[in-house]
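note to self: dont lose this again. the chain is below, predicted strucutre after it. 105 aa total, dont forget to put it in the shared folder this time
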Amino acid sequence: MSISNNTLYEVMNPWPEVDPIPLKGIAPRVKDLSGKKIGLFRNSKRAARPSLAVVENRLKARFPDCEIKPYAFMPNAGIAENEEWISKFEEWLQGIDALILAYGD
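---
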């Protein structure tokens, strides 16, 4: 039996069309958190709340004049379809200088 090295493969893209939205990088890092408003965003998993409690305590110790704004996201709550929840989330986002996310798995 001989093995041929001339095998050709056709590579197919599983996406039906290219995403028209261009990619962009993350926001620039905040250089100093003193006096900044910091959002702490978490889901409802068990470890998220205590994880962000530690983060909050350390931030307050290091930057006593920072303002902490917590937000708890409840998955599967239909937030994307609920105008009131969208409005509350957008209100929470106003003026946040930095955001820390905890997903408590």
